[in-house]
Amino acid sequence: MTDPTQIFQLALTFEAFTDIQFWTSVGIIAGIFVIFATGLQLNVGFTGIQNFGQVGFMAIGAYTMAILTAESGWNFWLSLPVAIAAAIAFGLIIGLPSLRLRADYFAIVTIAAAEAIRIVALNARDLTNGPQGVFGFADSWNSVSDSIEEFIVDLGWTDVPSQFPLFLVTWGLAIGLMFAFSRMTRTPWGRVLRAVREDEDAARALGKNAFSYKLQSLALAATTGAIAGFLFALNLKFVVPDEFQPLVTFTGYAVLILGGLANYWGVALGSIVLWSVLEGLRFLELPLSETKIAALRFMILGFVLIGLMAFRPQGFFGNRKEMVLGD
Amino acid sequence: MEAGTFSGAQVRTLGERFAAALGRFNEAPFVVRAGVGIALLDLVLVLADRRPDSVFEWLLLAAIIAASTAATVPLARRPAAVAAVVLVNILAILILFHGLHDVSQRGLNGLSLGAIYALGAVGLTLVYGILKLVNFAHGDFLTFGAYMAYLVNVTWDLPLVFAIAFAIAATALLGIGFEKTMWAPMRKRGAGMLQLLLMALGLAFVIRYSIQFIWGTELRQLDVNNTSSVEFLDLRIGRTQLTVIVVGFAALLATGLMLRLTLLGKRMRALSDDIDLAETSGINTSRVILYTWLFAAGLAGLAGVFAGAITQLQPELGFELLLPIFAAVVLGGIGNAFGALAAGIVLGVVIEMSTFIVAPGLKLAIGFLILIVVLIIRPQGIFGQARTV
Question: Residues near A156 by Cβ (< 8 Å), separated by ≥ 6?
């Protein structure tokens, strides 16, 4: 049994609070969680479906990309759309039978489906290499990363952190996705989603196929999950089953609620705040062992969730007119 | 199934087609549905397990399918009985392929797991049914119970019996403590289901990582004898596992009798059925809720000690059991304590039996697969009533 809290461990040593390497890594993780939670926002905040299986989409995206590239010898860039398609297909397989169920059943089914993915990844050794994981899919990305780094060096910044290109790409994607999603929710299509969230029967009475809209919402969340999975894999340079614990989805919910429901930009802020706090704990120089500090971080996460639910269920920047968890 | 509501409009999306197909299938005579279902299930079993290797085995297989289908016909309105027939059908095929001895051996192994699931599920389902609280922290109640037993049994070096009693009491107190400080005030404010669910998730983190903070992540062992085993009828079982089965089933029986016979049990079931109606009938609901927590958390503590005794203690112990426990709750019908009891035991046995077909590491995934399939066929669970979905 590996320590599950090592999921978010950053492979770095740092000396000072101002270590740019360190904050680049925190920024990447925060950005990945922005992308991850953007899909959750579409589901929970705008469609009213409680998707607790987001990490499953992330796992499918990361594994499909890694296996196709490293083991089947596919072109990296070609494997990405295929991996997204695989995640969407999984979303449809899960959504078709279960989106008709009551919200709490759906939550349990999705969390079980995501766990089933992780267990299969752990055991299907021929395909996924089991707990050792998949390596060697990052060559194409590395060459792109190098040219971005060269470009920045040419601009005059000489000591570029090695992960800085990934940071740029992650946040570029995060901002792009948030922009696209917030535009989408303002179209007539997005208004139907909100109608489904508010009153599914009323939406159906107006001739809208509520079930189909919910499926589309889930498919889009699967897409963001898969993209977050790519970046997660590129950040670590390997894909192992242990990275895809349900804890990841729960952290995504903490980001979502902290930022606020029905507000995409709030999610970005929520992710930055949460990860700065969680990682910033390192600088408190507590006289505690590594495991205790890791435990402390997740205790804080728990208290944040409890406190928010008790005192500010719409989150910090939640749109109270739009979405309240009160009913 | 609401497929009928789409009729009139053209069938357009994949989802609607799926629903329409399911709807048509649901309108077929029961014997057809049962026959198709059982034949499909057995086909999957045969494909995953092995092919019958003689004409005699093929004939037996056909006879088992026919007999199971015939057996379901008089039971059309009793889903629990149909589920029992399906289980017997699976057992019959496994016995046909692997012999009675191997099947009973794995069934016996499954019983200890089943007892743990059932003990966990009965409390979770009552809390779920009565308070509409999807308690994601329930698994961590199990972990808490296990570590409390560790404290008494290993740290203080006292006999396991005291450790079990202490673990039950401490976990029960924990449950009541959270009810007083968190759940009762939140209910008073009219918190929604997702709000409570996320709060429970936060609480789960706090309990689990407090345990990790204190005891660390290393594996710990209760002071039990995990090497000696008992043999009877050619079957072999670990002494600790046998104890878990015996004590676990005694506790389950006591729970069942309590719910069935005592006034408190009736009140709990009344609350789970309809809390407003129960209150109007003069039941002191907040008092019964406290007892429910006492009971749910206490049983969770006991289940945790058992889980810790037959495996090892680590902070994720209970969380890893939570999903199968949830599966038992859903299969039994949310809020239905007897359903959860039966489903927990059955799930433990079925999960263990699945190792005939899949690698042992995959057996939990099989549990989730069962959950998903049952939800498609019968979302209200095997013992549940349609109106709750």
Answer: none
Q: Which two tokens stand for residue A217?
A: 């919402």
Strand segments, DSSP code E, in chain B are: 229-232, 235-238
Residues B149, B248: one domain? yes
Cβ(A234)–Cβ(A166) below 8 Å = yes
The model's pLDDT over B79-116, given as tens digits with 9 standing for 90+, comes to 777 778 888 888 888 887 788 888 888 888 889 999 99
pLDDT for A7 = 47
Residues B72 and B109 in one domain: no
For the complex shown, is ipTM > 0.95?
Answer: no
| Percent of chain A at pLDDT exceeding 70 | 91
Does residue B131 belong to any structural domain of this protein?
Answer: yes
8 Å CB contact of B365 and A102: no
Tell me whether B370 touches chain A (CB under 8 Å). no
Given an 8 Å threshold on Cβ–Cβ distance, is A98 in contact with B209?
Answer: no
A2 φψ region: left (φ > 0), alpha (ψ -120 to 50), beta (else): beta
The residue with tokens 């998707």 is: A51
Do B111 and B73 have their domain in common? no
Judge if B350 and B287 occupy the same domain. Answer: yes
How near does any CA of chain A get to the CA of B78, in Å? 22
If one counts the domains in chain B, the total is 2
Most confident of A73-82, A306-315, B361-370: A73-82
| Residues of B in Cβ contact (< 8 Å) with A111 | 323
**Closest partner CB to A101 (pick from B204, B213, B375):** B375
**How many Å lie between the alpha carbon of A139 and the closest alpha carbon of chain B?**
32
**Cβ distance B341 to B118 under 8 Å?**
yes
**Is B371 in contact with A108 (Cβ distance < 8 A)?**
yes
Interface contact B14-A101, CB threshold 8 A: no
Q: SS3 for A324?
A: coil
B373-380 average pLDDT score:
73
Q: Mutate one of B205, B372, B389 to test the A interface: name it (highest A CB count within 10 A).
A: B205
pLDDT digits (tens, 9 = 90+) for A8-66: 444 444 455 567 888 888 999 999 999 999 999 999 988 989 899 999 999 999 999 99
Q: Which of residues 19-38 of B touch A (CB under 8 A)?
A: 19
Range of the structural domain that residue B49 is part of: 3-77
pLDDT exceeds 60 at position B386: no
Whether B53 and B157 share a structural domain: no
Which residues of chain A make contact with B212, given a CB cutoff of 8 A? 5, 291-292, 294-295, 298
A310 and B19: CB-CB below 8 Å? Answer: no
Structural domain contains residue B363: no
The residue-averaged pLDDT of A93-111 equals 84
Structural domains in chain A? 30-311 (1.10.3470)
pLDDT at residue A288 tops 90: no
> For residues B378 and B370, what is the distance between their CA atoms, to the nearest angstrom?
11
User: Is residue B126 in a domain?
Assistant: yes
**Residue B91 covered by a domain:** no
Predicted TM-score (pTM) of the model is 0.85
Same domain, B64 and B113: no
Residue B220 phi/psi, 5-degree rounding, is: -125, 155
Min CA distance, A203 vs chain B (Å)? 13
Q: A136: phi > 0 → left, psi -120 to 50 → alpha, else beta; which?
A: left
**Rg of chain A (C-alpha set):** 20
pLDDT at B260: 84
Q: From chain A, pick out residues whose CB is under 8 angstroms from the CB of B368.
A: 112-113, 115-116, 119
Q: Chain A: residue nearest B196 by CA? A: A309
B215 and B334 part of one domain: yes
Per DSSP, what are the bridge partners of residue A135?
A: A238
Q: Which of B39, B61, B77 is the last residue of a domain?
A: B77
**B299 & B258 share domain:** yes
DSSP helix/strand/coil, B287: helix
For residue B47, what are its two tokens?
A: 């494909």
The beta-carbon neighbor of B361 closest among A122, A304, A327 is: A122
